[in-house]
């Protein structure tokens, strides 16, 4: 409401990179409504909190309000996340880390980068999604298969 919008803090962006100014909250609310997660994911109280913050406060300063809004924003962001992205975080990333560690034990130093390679993580996720249950790579790796053996 008051003051210019010159610095990152003035635009509602905290050091963590999370924006909580009214324009960001309004665009997030509109997207959540468009993608039908506004009523499905948020309680009545959460919806009212965001609506009031948009109407009354340009940029919240109260830590209590910031924390409450941040929790609601996280709920919305999780609901807006694509199923593939969600599976990449839950399935592909742990698989990539495990495979990377196996390759490191075998002596391949370049495998360190595999654990954070988005393309490799997406590949493992899609392969795992399309596998028959019981033969999934995630099942084999979580059962304790380490790829080791006698050489």
Describe the structure.
With 151 residues, the chain is an all-alpha fold. It has two domains: 22-80, no CATH class; 84-142, no CATH class. It is 59% helix and 0% strand. The chain has seven helices and no strands. The chain has helices at residues 22-34, 38-41, 44-56, 63-80, 83-105, 118-129, 137-142. The longest helix is centred in the middle third of the chain and has 23 residues, at 83-105.
Concise synopsis of the structure shown:
The protein is mostly helical.
Indicate the proportion of strand residues.
under 5%
What overall geometry do the principal axes of the alpha carbons give?
Answer: elongated
Counting helices, strands and paired strands, the structural category is mainly alpha
Distance between the termini: 69 Å
**Total DSSP E strands:** 0
- Number of helical elements: 7
| N-to-C SSE string, H for helix and E for strand | HHHHHHH
- Mean of all residue-level pLDDT scores: 82
Q: Which range best describes the helical content: under 10%, 10-25%, 25-40%, 40-55%, 55-70% or over 70%?
A: 55-70%
Count of all domains: 2
Please tell me how large the radius of gyration is: 21 Å
Uncertain spans, ≥5 residues at pLDDT below 50? Answer: 1-15
Largest pleated sheet: none
């Amino acid at each position: 409401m008051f003051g210019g919008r010159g610095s990152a803090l003035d635009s509602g962006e905290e050091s963590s990179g999370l924006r909580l100014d009214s324009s960001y909250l309004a665009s997030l609310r509109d997207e959540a409504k468009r993608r039908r997660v506004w009523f499905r994911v948020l309680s009545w109280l959460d919806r009212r909190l965001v609506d009031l913050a948009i109407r009354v406060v340009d940029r919240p300063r109260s830590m209590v309000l910031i924390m409450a809004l941040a929790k609601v924003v996280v709920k919305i962001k999780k609901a807006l996340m694509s199923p593939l992205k969600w599976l990449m975080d839950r399935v592909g990333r742990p698989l990539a880390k495990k495979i990377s560690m196996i390759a490191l034990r075998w002596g391949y130093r370049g495998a360190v980068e595999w654990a954070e390679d988005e393309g490799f993580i997406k590949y493992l996720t899609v392969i795992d999604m399309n596998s028959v249950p019981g033969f999934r790579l995630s099942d084999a790796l979580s059962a304790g298969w380490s790829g080791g053996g006698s050489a």
